[in-house]
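Hi D.,

Good news: the full-assembly prediction came through. Inputs first.
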Amino acid sequence: MSEAYQLRCRECGKLWGNTAKPFCEECFSPLEIAYDYEALKKVARKENLASRDFNMWRYLELLPLPENFATPNSVGGTPLVPARHLAKKWGLQNLYVKNDAVCYPSLSFKDRVVATALAAARRFEFKTVGCSSTGNLANAVAAQSAQQGFDACVFIPADLEPAKILNTAVYGARIVRINGNYDHVNRLCAQIADRFQWGLVNVNLRPYYAEGSKTHGYEISEQLGWTLPDNIVVPMAGGSLITKIAKAFRELVLLGWVKEKPVKFFGAQATGCSPISDGVKRNLARFEPQKPQTIARSLAIGNPADGPYAMKEIRGSGGWAEDVSDPEIVEAIQLLGETEGIFGETAAGVTVGVAQKLVREGRIGANETTVVCVTGNGLKTTDAITSEYPATEAIAPRLEAFEAYLDAQLATSAAVARV
Amino acid sequence: MSVTIEIPTAFRKFTDGSPKYSCSATTVAEALNVLTNQFPGLGKHVRDDQGQIRQFLNVYLNEEDIRFLGGETCTLKDGDRVLLVPSIAGGCS
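Then the structure:
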């Protein structure tokens, strides 16, 4: 092939070159990007990274980007936070939080996938781009479309969190609210991609889009000093991210950038929408779709397109999948905030809550290196935790009023302690 | 029962370009069998070697995924629409 990458069917292996195609036209299975790794070894060199900014474009040779691609903006390059307080609480030695709550420009890891999808959209000369979304993806599509001059049209379930709708609207995107859940929106978008010549990032541009997720994995490895963790806990909605982090780690080994070692992949879902974790825990050959009912709406995909591949990756790694209830999600958001100063969205609550469960189940060892992936910002899902923090009564701007307030607080604490 | 099966563009090379196929059937399974008997080239794309509906093909009865309706044995009534949609999109986190 003239380029170092092209579309390949994940089931029958047929190659399709580079085009906006949602699935294999031979066997109708999903497509992914396949690389010529021998060719990549010649152009992708670790030492080239030293002169590049710390964002996702530093790995540009490992992404499906057009030749002479001009990087349009800074995306990714998020912190890997040593989570010392949380580690102490859980009895672990080496715990990290990969914090995509501060991913630019729209504060979720979806900025990474949209960045590679829009590169493909430009290459395939789409004027209008869009997506089906539970919120974060719509935010990312809208923000980067504004930066790059695409018309954006996004499709969302009508009951999305107001903050997520606002965070799309502000960038001038057209928002189509659908009466139904995400799976209904998704089905409609599959039909729209079939009918209109639009670049729907997670439909007909999906193979290019999904590759952007790999940069989350590359960064983790680089930030760990070009090593791989023992365990990684990843939130799952459609199930794509966990498979792409695994692909990223495999590629780094193939390129000789890191030493090979086993990494256990752990998938995290909300109990109210847990088709993949349910499939893993019950050892099902195929997951059973569910009707989502959870506050973690960014993970509320009852019929996950990459579910089969996520299950395979988890099982093959010796990892596991778990899920947590809505109250556990809220507690975990608070735990992450209070221990590490990171305000994650409900999906982060899912991941941290599941990580805690995995530690308690003995699936994550005390001396192992563990990374927990936080993929979105808590400011987008404040409605999920607002009721935990009722407004307190205001006091007069006088010292004696504050003293009285303190006395009352101490009395309350003492009363609570006595109970 | 007279029902309509909606065919996605990618499948139309097996249905002589037709976007819809009307037939008489009492269950979704029967409708799919009638369809694949009429257009044999479609058969292996609808069912796998074990005779199960392919993993990456979603089948809907009107607005609902048939897996929520008890699977392909779910019964049809006059005027129902059966949609075939390849599983392609999805994924938000």
